[in-house]
């Protein structure tokens, strides 16, 4: 799917540690997912390793995002009485949206045709309210998504559409392998797109429950898609939250970024690989992708490294990182000395390290979760023939939401500013974790880990 600010990807959500709470073209896992715990609802992901928990495709995370914050049942618009009221008022609510739809370019005849007999799918409310938490580390997440099966299928898909990928890369200057990786991770190359009618799903959410304001725009955008003839209504199916197509666009994201790449007069990201890949590349280009450059590089840190430098706000030329003793594994050459990058430690000080370029930020513009973007970049490299990461992922346990909240509360009780102790690990909590780590002699990587929580518990 595509997104990361409320205006860009869809309605905004919040990251719970590494919990996914964003919506847009490529459901986001959460902007602060360097803490090591990805939370998402259960969903069988086709290429999961048998010995590991089943991974969750990004769109499922977008759906989970709709449930955040926790305890949605307490929201006044999610009580049984409120839901019953909204259901009874559904037809009137949809009718009241006609002026908005007409102003957006939907014809009067089209509005009547697509809304005639439209009924709410109240089962969606259960998904909106429920957010089971299944935590996983960044390492588990990346390894589950970048599987040998997904790599093989991706190479086959690229070979079958070689001319499309070559032209997409030529026109937009975006690495074809990154575009293919998004296709692979979002819908497993088209095999897992969702089956909910998008007009019904967005119409339900526009008139029932606690996200009505946001989904009114999505509903109107969905009507415009079919009214313009871009995608037949019968083909416009996707997730319960409204994302659809080979790379999972929300309707408003489609209106902004979709292109008719195959030249048939329709922007059909559902049935046309060319349109879907071209639209995805356009989004990445708008996100700042620079042609001819990598998304990032695996690197090795020297002993006694200052982990306070592992901060997204600290960007240095590659030559300066090299001067600090950072080098690539296996004697590989460092990138051009003037290329800017920041240091990312997705599993903390004990895991692999990466220097991330502006192209990593472009992937984040599609979905602002570090683990998601890292998986995209790594899958892209594997598709082009690269090998696995050299440095192993450490054995870690991911904190549950309750444990993350406890960690915040314990930090707050010691005078550290963590913001609201809600289990969502953001910039304030990471800064507080760093300060605590410095105080107790732990590597200050800012990671809200089991080690930090155990230390806090031991000091109470």
From TrEMBL:
InterPro entries: Lysozyme-like_dom_sf (IPR023346), MltB-like (IPR043426), MltB_2 (IPR011970), Peptidoglycan-bd-like (IPR002477), PGBD-like_sf (IPR036365), PGBDSf (IPR036366), SLT_2 (IPR031304). Gene3D superfamilies: 1.10.530.10, Bacterial muramidase, PGBD-like superfamily/PGBD. Pfam families: PG_binding_1 (PF01471), SLT_2 (PF13406). Residues 401-456 form the Peptidoglycan binding-like domain. Residues 48-77 are annotated as: Disordered. Residues 90-381 form the Transglycosylase SLT domain. PANTHER family: LYTIC MUREIN TRANSGLYCOSYLASE, MEMBRANE-BOUND LYTIC MUREIN TRANSGLYCOSYLASE B. This is Lytic murein transglycosylase.
């Amino acid at each position: 799917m595509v997104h990361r600010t409320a205006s860009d990807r869809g309605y905004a959500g919040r990251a719970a540690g590494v919990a996914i709470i964003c919506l847009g073209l490529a459901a986001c896992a959460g902007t602060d997912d360097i803490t090591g715990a990805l939370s998402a609802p259960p969903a069988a992901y086709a290429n999961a390793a048998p010995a590991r928990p089943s991974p969750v495709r990004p769109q499922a995370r977008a759906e989970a995002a709709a449930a955040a914050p926790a305890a949605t049942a307490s929201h006044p618009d999610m009580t049984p009485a409120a839901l019953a009221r909204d259901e009874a008022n559904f037809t009137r609510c949809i009718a009241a949206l006609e002026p908005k739809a007409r102003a957006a370019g939907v014809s009067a005849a089209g509005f009547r045709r697509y809304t005639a007999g439209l009924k709410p799918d109240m089962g969606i409310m259960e998904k909106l309210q429920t957010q089971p938490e299944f935590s996983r580390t960044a390492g588990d997440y990346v390894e589950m998504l970048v599987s040998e099966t997904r790599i093989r299928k991706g190479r086959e898909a690229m070979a079958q559409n070689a001319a499309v990928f070559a032209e997409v890369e030529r026109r937009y200057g975006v690495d074809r392998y990154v575009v293919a990786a998004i296709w692979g991770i979002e819908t497993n190359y088209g095999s897992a797109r969702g089956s909910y009618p998008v007009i019904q799903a967005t119409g339900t959410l526009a008139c029932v429950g606690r996200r009505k304001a946001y989904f009114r725009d999505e509903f109107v955008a969905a009507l415009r898609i079919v009214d313009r003839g871009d995608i037949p209504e019968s083909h416009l199916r996707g997730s319960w939250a409204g994302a659809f197509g080979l790379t999972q666009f929300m309707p408003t994201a489609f209106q902004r970024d979709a292109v008719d790449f195959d030249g048939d007069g329709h922007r059909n990201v559902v049935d046309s690989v060319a349109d879907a890949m071209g639209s995805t590349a356009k989004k990445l280009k708008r996100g700042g992708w620079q042609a001819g450059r990598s998304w990032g590089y695996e690197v090795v840190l020297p002993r006694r490294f200052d982990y306070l430098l592992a901060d997204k706000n600290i960007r240095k030329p590659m030559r300066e990182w090299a001067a600090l003793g950072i080098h690539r594994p296996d004697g590989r050459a460092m990138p051009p000395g003037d290329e800017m990058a920041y240091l990312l430690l997705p599993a903390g000080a004990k895991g692999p390290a990466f220097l991330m370029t502006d192209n990593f930020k472009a992937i984040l513009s599609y979905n602002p979760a570090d683990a998601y973007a890292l998986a995209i970049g790594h899958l892209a490299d594997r598709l082009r023939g690269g090998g696995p990461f050299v440095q192993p992922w450490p054995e870690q346990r991911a904190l549950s939401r309750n444990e993350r909240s406890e960690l915040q509360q314990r930090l707050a009780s010691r005078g550290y500013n963590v913001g609201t102790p809600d289990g969502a690990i953001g910039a304030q909590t990471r800064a507080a974790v760093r300060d605590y780590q410095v105080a107790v002699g732990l590597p200050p990587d800012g990671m809200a880990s089991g080690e930090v929580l155990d230390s806090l518990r031991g000091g109470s």
